[in-house]
Specification:
Elements: E1 2-7, H1 12-23, E2 28-35, H2 39-48, E3 53-56, H3 59-66, H4 81-89, E4 94-97, H5 105-113, E5 118-120, H6 123-140, E6 144-146, H7 149-158, E7 166-173, H8 191-195, H9 204-212, H10 214-227, E8 234-238, E9 244-250, E10 255-259, H11 265-273, H12 304-314, H13 318-334, H14 343-353, H15 362-378
Parallel strand pairs: 1-2, 1-4, 2-3, 4-5, 5-6, 7-8
Antiparallel strand pairs: 7-9, 9-10
Length: about 375
Amino acid sequence: MKRIVLLGSTGSIGRNVLDIVRRHPDQFRVVGLAGHRNIDVLRAQCVDHPDARFVVTDAAAASQVANDPAWRTRFAGGTEAALIDLVRGSDADLVVNALVGFVGLAPTLTALQAGIPVATANKESIVAGGELLLRAARTSGVELVPIDSEHVAIAQCLAGTSRREIERVILTASGGALRDRAPESLAEVSVRDVLAHPTWRMGAKITVDSATLVNKGLEIIEAHWLFGLPYDIIDVVIHPQSIVHSIVRFVDGSMIAQMATPDMRIPILYALAYPNRLKSDLGADVLEFPALSFAPVDHRRYPCFPLAVAAARAGGTSPTILSAANEVAVEAFLGGKLPYGAIPDVIGSALAALPSQPVTSIDDVIEADHATRRWIRDHRTLEPKRN
C-alpha cells in the first residue's frame, strides 16, 4: 500500500486524487494533506483520512485551524515552508503535487532529493526547474511521474520504443472556452466567458491558461524535460473533443495515439499506480466517442502560444519568467484588474525586458521568479480593466 502526501488537496486535481484513493482503499493511504485557504473542504478530507497531518498555507485560514483544539494536534504548519516539512516528515511512498503555481517547486525538489517519487500536475515547477528536478530524480533513483493527461499519454505511446524511432510528438489542445469566437472579439471577454470550458472541469488558473494556450507552451517545456525530447520535434494541434491526448509519429510513418474520455481521474490513476495498472470502471466504449477533428494552432487567436514557445527555446530562466509573468497576469485578470487581451502584453513585455540567465541552482530560479514579479509591479504593466 502506498502512503501518499497530497499537496493541493482542495483543488480540482486534489479532489480527483482523493476520489481515486476512495475507489482503491487497498492500494493507497493518505498520510499528508495540504491546502491553501479552503479549510472547510480540508477538514472534511481530514475526517475521511484520519492518518493525515495537514498544512494550510494561507495565513488567515491557518490561524483559524491553529486555534481550534479539535484540529491543532494534526496541524503541521501554516506557511508555504511547512509544505517541505510535511514532505520530509510523513514517511511517504509518493508525493502527489496538485499545487498551482511556482509554490510547487520547492516541495517537489525536496521530495526527489529525499528519494521519494513524485506524481505531479504542477506544470510551473517543471517549467521553472525541470533541469533541477530531473537531476535530483536521477541522483536519487526515483521517478518524476506526470499527471497531465498529455504527458501520461506520451509516456504510454513511448513505452518500449527507442528515441531514435521518434519523428514527432504531438500534444493535443482543446482550444479552451474561446476557441470558436472571432479573434478580434477576444480582447474584452469576461472572466465568466473564459471559465466556461466546454470539455474539462478544472481550476480557474488552468482554465484561463487553456483559453490563452499558455498551458500548451508549458506542456511543451514539460515534455522536453520529462522525456528528453528536443523542442523541434514537439508539436501542438487543436483537438476540440479532448479524446486523443497525445500522438507519437515514428520514422516509418506510423502513429500511436492514446485515447480516453476527458476525465482527469484516468491519468491520475495511471500516475498513482505507476509502474502498474489498476482495474477501474472509468472511461467509455469507443463507440461512444464523437467524431474526431484536428486543426493547427492559430497564432492570431492564441498570441501567448508563440511567446511561450520562444521562451522554451531560449532556455535558462526564460521559462521561469514566462511562468511568473503568466501567473501575475492571470491573477490580475481573474481579479478584474486586467483585460483578457492584455495578458500577452504582460508576458511579452517581461520576456523582452528580462534577459535569460543560466540555471545552476534553485536560487537562480527563485530569483528569476521574484525579479519578474518585481519588474511587472515596478513598471505598472498591469492596467486597470476597462468597462
